[in-house]
Structure formats: C-alpha cells, structure tokens
Fold each of these.
Amino acid sequence: MMTPLLEVKNLEIAFHLEGVRSTPVRSLSFTVAHGERVAIVGESGCGKSLTALALSGLPPTDRASVTGEIVFDGQKIQTPADLQRIRGKDIAYVFQDPGSALNPVMRVRDQIAESLPQLSKAQRRAVTLDLLIRAGLPDPPRVAAAYPCELSGGQQQRVMLAMALASGPKLLVADEPTTALDVTTQQQVLHLIDELAIASGMAVLLITHNLGLVAGHTSRVHVMYAGIVVESGAVRDVLTAPLHPYTSGLLAAVPMLDTPRNSQLRDIPGTVPAPDNWPPGCAFAPRCSHATPRCVIEQPPQEQRGTRSFRCFNPVDG
C-alpha cells in the first residue's frame, strides 16, 4: 500500500494566554494520498484553518504548542528546518481573502517572482506569464504589470493560484478559496483547481464551511467540529447518508435550487463552544436533537462502519 503524501496523527494545537489554556484542535488525525483531493468541512471556530496552518507552522500556530505527528512524503516534520524545507515549496497555500494576502504596493509580476527560484530577468518574465496563463487569466502581460487593486476578486484569487503553482508543490492547501466570490466565480476557481491538480498530479486539501462545495471537487471529506473529526468517508457516502447529526445539520443548511422563495433557511441552533471550555462529553450534545444523558458526560469513541468513521453514540440512521 502506498504511503500517504500527508499523514496527521493525534494533532493538538494549544494556546496559553494569561494563564488560560485553549485547545482549538485536539486528537485530530487524517491522511491525504498522492494526487488526492480531500476536504475538511465545518463551521467557523471548528479548527479547520488552524489545522491547515499548522502543517507548515504558519502564524499563529508558530506561537502555539503543537503536538502529535505530521508526516509529509514519508518524512516526519519535527524541526523548524523541516518546516522551512516544505513551506511554500512542497506545501503551497491559497487563502480565503486574496485582497489581504497580496501585497497592495507590489505589482503582480514582482510578487510571483518572489516564489520563483533564481532566474534571469527574461526567464522570470516568461515563467510568470506562463503561470498566469495556467491560472486562466486573460491578457497575462497586463495582469503581470497590475497592482492587486486593479484586479477583480476572482482575478486576485487566480494570481494567488499562480503564485502557489510557482514552486511546483506536491500539496495545495486551499483555505476557503471561494469566500467573497460570486457563485459563478466560485465554480470557476474550484474547476481551475481541479484542472491544475489533475494536470500536475498535485494533491489538494480543501478547507470550507460549505458541504455543498465538496461534491464533484473532492473524493473524501472529513467533517470537523470542536477541534476533532466527527465523521469521515467518501464524499458520495457522506453527502447521501450522513451518520453524525452535525453532518446532517450542515447538509440541511445548504440552500437548494428548489427551495420555495419565502421559506426560512435552516440552521443548526446554538454556536460552536469556545476552545478553552469544551463540554465534558460530546461537544455537539448541547446543539443536538439526538443527544441523550450519556452524550453529555462521555466523549464518543471513533467507530468504523465499512470505509466510514464517525464519533456518535446515536447516529442519525439509528
């Protein structure tokens, strides 16, 4: 069996502030195979983005206590030198707000050049234009000479993709890459990531709060709540027959095209608890219609059902 490209085992991210310890990520394990596209889904505050940032030791996780094991391409990531070796090279990122991630006072060509190895001026120009073409940008010379403020949100996100591709990464971490984009542009960006991944053999870890985005763009999904994965499986299985009540709630909250215009949108009552005050039992119990007294005092163990795994005493299928 081939070794996974990325293997995360029992990851915990802890912050200490004014004597208070908070653990926004705890006992988290998952894998990404070579060339595979995997999604991590959950509400804001569930620890998705922190997990993504911890893979390369990016802020604010560089100020946290990170324990557990991260193995990338067969090598355990343990030291700052290990992180420096893979950061921006083997693991590249596309963030949710390109307008903030891009430097507003640098032209696009100069920002892409920072991601390139030492090349001559002519070589840098040629590679930059090629990357912008691969990212699907019209009129690459104009875009290369532009400042970020002269581009639309969709164009800025494509520039971010071009920068990420510059190092030929083995894994692209796309953290909410469609936030603040209109629906049409969202699909264009996701399809572009699919095409680039297939063409290069690059693996993709898609971070999103919207279960509706993972269909057709990833093969497996990990549903994350309160710092842990509560359900994992093939996308088709999870979307058509969710086992965990939280997954079911996320799916019910996705608006459908045939939803009557005046109907009320569904949501999950309550909010994600604070990471410095996780409930003693199942963290989802206070919001769960399936919860029993046992759920409030015991943490559900991870159970396996075929290729599916979940943490719930009372799965929605009974």
Amino acid sequence: MTKSVLIEKVSEKLEGLSKKQTEVIIETIFESVKDSLAQGGKVEIRGFGNFRLRNRNARKARNPKTGASVEVPPKKVPYFKVGKELREMVNRNLQ
C-alpha cells in the first residue's frame, strides 16, 4: 500500500473531508512520528506496534568493490516492533 492509496482509503471512510484535507492529516501523523524519533523518543500505537531507535555499534566493514577496509561509525536506526493484535491478525490469515 502506498501513501496515496492510504489517503484515498481514509478519505472514503471520512465522508466530510476532502482528499487534500485527508492528505494533511496523514502527513501530520507521519511528520509527528519522524519528529519524535529524531528527538530520540518512541511512538507507541496500541494494537499496531512501536517505533523506537536502536543503537548500532561502530564496526569495520569491507568495500565490496575495492576490498578496502572501512570504518563504519556508530549510529541510531529506526526499529518497528509489531503489536500483539496485529501479529495475531496476520498469523490468523496464514492458517
């Protein structure tokens, strides 16, 4: 599902809002999640999952093209942990 499809689905459910208004709402949600993670926080959406940051340690890597050793600095990466309800729903559809 793309963002435009998501906007269209939400717009269909909310009859009083135009697609442009729905797009502003969706963009605001995504920007809020990004801002929270950029500030080192976490986002918890009950029944869906959690967005958090994980620390990656510094390490040595190899450039596959030249074979030269490269130092990779430590960094933080976004991580999503699925919620129990969503995990159960996905697994229920597999059976």
Amino acid sequence: MSQRIGIWGLGESGVGAALLAQRWGYETLLVADKPPSSLHAQRLQEAGLTWHIAEDPTPLLKEADLVVRSPGIRPDTPALHQLIASGVPVVSDLEWGWRHFPKSSQLWLVTGSAGKTTTTTLLAHLIRTAGRRAIACGNIGYSFCLALCEDKPYAYYVVEASSFQLWDTYSLIPNLFVITSLVRNHIDWHGSLEAYAHAKLHILGRLPSETHLIYAADSELLVEKLRLYPTHAQSWRFAVAPSEGIHAWIEGNKLICDMKVGDDADRWEVSYEATPLQELPKRKNALAAAIAGRLAGLRRADLRRSFETMEKMPHRLEQVALIDGVLYVNDSKATTTDAVWYALQSFERPIIWIAGGVDKGNDWGEILDIVRARVRALVLIGTNPEPIYRAFCDTVPVIERAGSMREAVEKAHKLARPDEVVLLSPGCASFDWFSSYEERGNAFREAVSQLKSEKAQSV
C-alpha cells in the first residue's frame, strides 16, 4: 500500500511537490485555503490531480502519512502544531525534493539575507558555460521539486533556499553550501533573530567533510553566528577586501581568487570590464561563484566567459531611464537593509531614495552611516512607513510620504536635481501594496515611463 502524501498549499512549491509525489507513485491529497492560479490549476488538471479548498486543513491533512507544507506556512500556524501533535510528519518542499534527489547529481544550495538570487543565477550560468547541465531552481521562482520531475536529471541543481524553506529540513545535505550574508531579517515570521539564524544555519551540523561551505567573511553577524554551528565541511571565504584566510576578493576592477584545491594551487584574476557585474553587490556575489567554479574544476576562461554572457537581472539595480539628467534605478528586489546598503554604496551621486513596505523586523540603524553620506531626500511608501521615518528623521533633511508608486515617482522627480539618482530600494517586503517585488518593480518602471512620456510631450 502506497503512502499518502498531503500537499499543503498550491503555489509553485506545492504544485511541484504534488507532481513529484505523483511521479514516484504516491497517493496525493492536495489542500489549500484558496484555489491555485490558472497556470497551476492547468498543470494539476493535466496531471489528473484534484484539490480541496478548506479554511482549516487539519482534518483532511491528518489522513496523510506525511505533509509537505508551502513555504508560506509559518512556524507559529496553529494547524501546523495540531498536525505535528497528532503525529503527522511535516516537511518543507526542499526536504521532500531531497528525499527523491538523483544520486548521480550535485546539489548546490544558496542562502543568505541578500544576494541569493544573483548568486544562484551566476552559479548555474557558470556551470552551463563550462558545458555541464545545470538548472537554477528553488526560491528563485522555479520549484526544486518541479525541476526534479523533468525526464532527464541535471548534473547540477543550484537551489536558492529561503529561511522559510530551510527551517524544517531534516536530512538535506548539499554538496556545496553558499551563504551570501546574514542580517536581521524576517523577525516577524521567525519570532527572533536566533530562530532566523537557526533556520539558515542548522544544516551545517550534518555536513560531512567532503562537502564545501562558502560564505561571506565580511558579514559580521554571519561570522558571529557561524561560531554556534560547527561543521565538518571544508570552509572557503570571500570578502570585498583581502585579508588573512580570504580566498576571493575584489582588487580595483578585478576579481581575485587565490586558493589551493587538493594539489592544485592557482590565482585567478578576472576583470569585471565589459560585464553586467558593475555594481558592488553583483561583484561580491561573483566571488562566491569563482570559489565554487574552482571547487568544480572549472577553468578561469569559463568564469570570464560566464561573466561576459551573463544577462542583467530585472529589479536589481536596474537602470530604467535618464530624465532631465536624473537617473532612475529599480532595485525593487532589495528587501533587506543589507541589500539597501549595497545599493546606496553603488552610487557616488546624491540619492533620492524611495523606501518602505512590510517591515520584517529590520534594524535600520545598520545603514545609518551610508544613508547620512548618500541620501539627500527620502520618499516613503507602504502602509506603515513609521519605522523608517523614525530611523532617519534626524538624518535625512527631506522626508515625504506617498500614497502610491506613481505619487512616489512624481515626488522624487520634483526633489531630484540633474546628476542625481532616484533609487527605488525599499528594504521591505512588498505585500502591503503589491503581490511581489516584481509587481512593485514593474509599477516603478511604469510610473517612470509615464513621467518620461509626459516630459517629452511638454517639450
């Protein structure tokens, strides 16, 4: 008799988990509090799967032998505690995928408070550039489980992993684990900084000596927390500036990677010239990719070619328009103070900063110095801008509030002077006004486009 697998939630991860369960011959029970999107419904219907909509999923899911929860199910959800108390095991989609992972493949896992998506994309692109089969999946937008449903296994699965997915993984062991940064984040979801850090780092304790840990050695909170999570994995470190024990760093306009892998000692120097990696955050993420490439036995030419052919990522320091000498930049993907710090650091010119949204327990004091140095005016968005206002009311000389993205762009335009930057870098989640950071970034693009059109018509 086959096991009955409960799938709790019908978003991208839930649909992937359901299709993976079906592929392996399990009986499936799909439950959610709202119907799936039309695309996800079509996928499920084509597979012959049906689903239940229920405000309280507990009675149905108690009939399952194991439940795969959506990343959106919080640790403090009462129904989750009821299921666990009733003896039903509950795991994340990452754990479910790992239990069906092809033994011949490599799993590269990428997490961190900022830089996950860029690093995941870079790593997968680097591997493909070297002629090996790789896919970027997970929190990046294409389900890990769905990738595992494809007919031909990939040689490398490069998986972006959020803390929402990692906290209840119990056996997952990546071949290579990258941690891009750690700052105070998602405290509203996890309940404390310690719980957030534990979600990210607890898997370190089960990594064996043949695995690799790559991490940002200049992320102070990360280094502090890593002391609490000893590991047998081989450790490799990157940082913006060189120091003792650093294996990759930035020197002028070059990436330097100097490390010994087995009997192979080599120093790579790769220029950032003529590549999309012009902003500091992307250049730093590339350091992790260089170390991973060395560990995978790739060549310096592979790294260089991957840099040259890498496409710019939307919503991450994306230059949208130049209007009256003012540069408009979409950094909607910046949902943490760490990401905002890098964005502000990327421009020497004065900045009109658009920020706000759903505050996830940020410590805005972490970026007080860079805001004081770079920001001339601040336009607040979102339903609760008070935490940001309180943090910078004595630092930024001009602070205004907007009731829409359109109004925010208009106010920023009136404040900006030639040779300045209007930067959308919210530092917050988007779920008060928008359904995603992509929708927020698109709203910014549209508002800037309308502004540019109006300016052209008035000439």
Amino acid sequence: MTSISRACRSALALAALAGALCGALPAFAQSPAYMNCGELWYARNEIYAQNGYCFETARARAAFGPGCFPPFGQLSRGERATVNEIQAWERRKGC
C-alpha cells in the first residue's frame, strides 16, 4: 500500500474545507460547542483517520476503514490541539 504524504493529506483537508464552504459540511467545520456526542466522536476520529491511525473498534472501522498508513495516527501540534478541544467538549457534554 502506498502512503499519502502529509502535504497530500493537507491538500485533501483543504479540499474538504472548500466543500464545506459549498455546502458539504465536514464534521469539524462547525464549532464543537454546537456538536452532539456523535458528531464530536466523528470529528475527533476523522483527524486520526487522516493520519493513518489503525482503528480497532467496529464503529471506527465501519466509519473510516482500517486506516494503518504512516504516520500511523501521529498528529501535528495543531491537530493535537484540535483533538484536545474536541475531547474537552466530549467531557463537558458527558459523552
């Protein structure tokens, strides 16, 4: 399996953002304050999926596939901050 470079993943993320502006709203395009538990879960795991995380739960595999490509879920500083924010909202909402 070929891996997707970090630059390509960034370009895909920008394409998703462009889609959001045109009506196809990705999970984290809205503020986590207004997201329900399912949307928060999806937004958080979508970040890991874009970074090749190897999902183990049936729910995550059904949503994102098995993943597993370099960097195997390693997040950038900005991605980590976003995940931390989402997790804070999950705790706040009792997810």
